Amino acid sequence: MSVPTLENASLVSLQERRLLSHPDSSKAVYHLVLDLKNSNIVYEVGDCIGVYPQNDPTLVKHIVECFDVSPSEIVWDKRGGHEITFRQYLLTKANLGLLKKSLSEKMHFQENLAYLKRENVHHIKPQDFIEDLMPLLPRYYSIASSQKEVGEKAHLIVGFETTPSEMIGVCSRYLCYDVPLNQRALSIFLHKATSFYLPEASFEKPLIMIGPGTGIAPFIGFLQERIKRTPFQKNWLFFGERHKDKNFYYKDYLTSLETKGQLKLDLAFSRDQTEKIYVQHKMEEKAQELYKWLLDGAYFYVCGDAKQMAKACDQSLKKIFMQEGRLTKEEAKERIKTLRKEGRYRRDVY
Length: 350
Prior knowledge:
The protein is 33% helix and 23% strand. The protein is α/β, with parallel strands linked by helices. Strands 6-3-8-1-2-7 form a six-stranded antiparallel sheet, covered by helices on one side. The radius of gyration is 23 Å and the shape is elongated. The chain starts with 9 loop residues before the first strand and ends with a strand.
C-alpha cells in the first residue's frame, strides 16, 4: 500500500456544506458531504478521511509580493521530488504558520507576514526560503456516516472557532469556507481505523458512546450501521456541548431515533446553567444503569478531547465500577484493563 501524498491523493467534490450550529455560536460546525464517485474509496465506520488543505490564497499572494519574483517562479520540491511554482508550493505544500523555524508555533500568521516585510526578504531566493518551511500536513476527520446508508458518499463534521482569540485552523477554514461546491477540487485519502471500529461481535451487544462536540462524528456512522444491521439492538449516546439551542448537532436525527426506541440519549450542555455539566457527570448520574449495560456485555466507546474529557470519563467509569460493583480502586482499574483487553473499551481521542 502506497504512502499517502498530495500527488497520489484522490480528487473528490464537496457536494454539500451545511451549518449545524446556530449562526450566533462562537463555534461554527458544519456537516460536509463528499462525493466519492471515481475515487475507489470504500470505508468502514470508524475510519477517517485525510484531507490535504490549502493555505489562504490572499495570504499566499502577500507573501509572494514580499519577494522580487514572479508567482510562477519555479522551485524544487524536495519532498515531492518535482518542480513546482513558488505560488503553488506556498499554497499547497508549506506550513505558513511557521515561516521561520525560530518563530513561535503559536504566532499568528499576520505576525509572521509582518516579520517578512520588516526583514526586507526580497533579496532571498524563493528556493532558499521554502527550504526553511515546515510541510503542510494532512488533517484527519472521523467519517460521520455508513456506506450502507449513504452509498458513494462520506459525511464529515468540521468545527471552526470564530472568536478572534482562537488560532485559525488551516484545514477547517479551507473546508468550511474555501473549497468550491461540486468541483473535483478536494484532495483526500482513506485512513483505516486500527482499533476504533465495530468488531463483528459488537453487533450482538449493547453499545455505549461518549461523544461531546465534534466527537459525535464517528457515532453517527456507528448508529447508521447498527440500525441497518441490528435495528433492535440497544444504543446509548452521551452527547455534550455548550448550549442546547446553539450546539445540539443532528438534533432531529437523534431525537427521532430516541422516539423510535432505537437510541437512549443523554445530553450535557455545559453553559445552560450556572454550574457546568459535562458528559462524565451524566455518566455518573446514570451509574446504576450504565453498570448494568456493561455487565450485559456492552461495548464502551469514547471520542473527542484527550486532554480533559477522555481522562474525566475514564475517572467516572472507575467511580461507577467502585460504586456499583463495590470494588476497590485497584479492582476498578483492573476491571477497566479487562474491558480494554476484551476490546470492549475503545477510544479515539486527540
